[in-house]
Design a protein that fits this description.
By secondary structure, the chain is an all-alpha fold. The protein has one domain (2-79): 434 Repressor (Amino-terminal Domain) (Orthogonal Bundle). Helix content is 65%, strand content 0%. The chain contains six helices and no strands. Helix 2 (10-28) packs across helix 4 and helix 3 packs across helix 5. The protein is elongated.
Length: 97
């Protein structure tokens, strides 16, 4: 699965994200116009992202779109917080002794 992901171009991945975003938006029941009003982005920007014709959406715009459909928490899945380093924890324990 990961090999297939790494074989895709950045544009391909963004197009897939746009399609997935469209699916989320529709399932939740929002129109592109409602997302536009809530996010402050143009309908053209939202439509272009969803249909894959624009692969240059900024992270800031993507965050606005997620917030507009009440799914901002999904951003955590992109880069989850790293767990504490076992080596750092060990060193910290050694200092406390």
């Amino acid at each position: 699965m990961y090999d297939e992901l790494y074989e895709q171009s950045g544009s391909d991945i963004i197009q897939q994200l746009g399609k997935r975003y469209s699916d989320y938006r529709k399932r939740i029941g929002y129109t592109q116009k409602e997302v536009s009003v809530k996010s402050g982005l143009s309908i053209f920007t939202i439509s272009s992202f969803e249909n894959g014709s624009s692969t240059g959406v900024t992270v800031a715009s993507f965050i606005k779109m997620l917030r507009a459909i009440d799914t901002l928490e999904e951003i955590e899945k992109l880069l989850p917080e790293l767990p504490k380093s076992p080596l750092k924890l060990f060193k910290k324990q050694q200092k406390e002794k």
